[in-house]
Amino acid sequence: MKKFKIKPVNTSLEQSLKRKIDQKTKPLGALGRLEELALQIGTIQQTLTPSLSNPHILVFAGDHGIVEEGVSAYPQEVTWQMVMNFIQGGAAINVFCKQHGITLNVVDAGVNYDFPEGLEGLVYNKVGKGTRNFLKGQAMTIEQAQRCIESSSEIIKSIHAKGCNIIGFGEMGIGNTTSASALMSLFCDIPVAQCVGLGTGLNESALQHKTAVVTEALKQYNKHDTPIAMLATFGGFEIAQIVGAMLQAAELGMIILVDGFITTSAYLVAQAIEPAVRDYSIFCHQSQEKGHTLMLQALDVKPLLDLNMRLGEGTGAAVAYPIVQSAVAFLNQMASFESASVSGKKA
Ligand SMILES: O=C(O)c1ccc[n+]([C@@H]2O[C@H](COP(=O)([O-])O)[C@@H](O)[C@H]2O)c1
Ligand SMILES: Cc1cc2nc[nH]c2cc1C
Q1: Residues of the signal sequence (predicted)?
Q2: Is residue 36 part of a domain?
Q3: Could you give the C-alpha distances from 323 to 165, 167, 304, 319, 328, in angstroms and in order?
Q4: The pLDDT value given to residue 224
Q5: Which residue range(s) make up the domain with 188?
Q6: CATH number of the domain enclosing 125
Q7: Has 313 been annotated as catalytic?
Q8: CA-closest residue to ligand 1 atom 10
Q9: What pLDDT sits at residue 222?
Q10: Into how many domains does the chain fold?
């Protein structure tokens, strides 16, 4: 198994960054969460003048054998059809990436479809044509999970080599909220019923069925399983590739933008493998998918946005990006009390 060397961020600059933030022409603390972001980014980059360069969002796509159990409101072919939509520029994530100057890459991590060769904008990294139904055995082999992690880490290295220092992750995969719910229940130790939600839009009776499917599947869990074994048993190829991508991005000191419910489930696995991935991660939004609130609470993190979104694709990360830009911009560009000759707080 590939080992990632993720350094917890060095906090020695924290005091100087705080001082710089406090000297800006504003009441102390008045930029709220933007101040926390500026501090985090300055600490990640070890500078009082951080910058964001060549932002990317990667959408990992994969199919799920568990859809045989009737756990999604949409048919499996939507996964490949949406991949084509991403490539043609017509999805929500295309619109938001274009709006904010973010480069979008789409990765076929394991879609159950043979894409024609040479599609521009598609990264061919298929590890299997969809996972197996995890009600009937492991979704993928440990070897496949490892291959996902290793191959996606290579994708991140090549993007980093193009000068990218901030990267968001999104996903596309009919059925993947079922995997994410199973992972959440295991990694957060939260009862299944609180982890399962409507996904793309189930009705009440289908929700009960989905809950029963996850409950039954989790009987396979063995408490001696490693995070990789848990990922292989209940995950998806796109989820596993996001795990490798996050770990590699953190090793390279990049800022990681975490999207919604499924992406955060990948983060749970990444953090279980290497806890220091936390220092590099920004939790962009609170998805409307039921389990996401508890998942974020279990992680003790507060997302930047709560817009009732539940799309995935990295859309929460894309919409949060300008907020991250604002944090870096105020730190670099605002005047200080001294430079602008503004009186500071009364003693
Ligand atoms: O990101 C989220 O929070 C989110 C919440 C619910 C659904 N989704 C998207 O919907 C798909 C999975 O839903 P489902 O019902 O098929 O499991 C998948 O393509 C996800 O990108 C995404
Ligand atoms: C249409 C559609 C678009 C999506 N994008 C991410 N998940 C999705 C699920 C569906 C069904």
Answers
A1: none
A2: no
A3: 16, 14, 8, 8, 9
A4: 75
A5: 56-330
A6: 3.40.50.10210
A7: yes
A8: 200
A9: 80
A10: 1
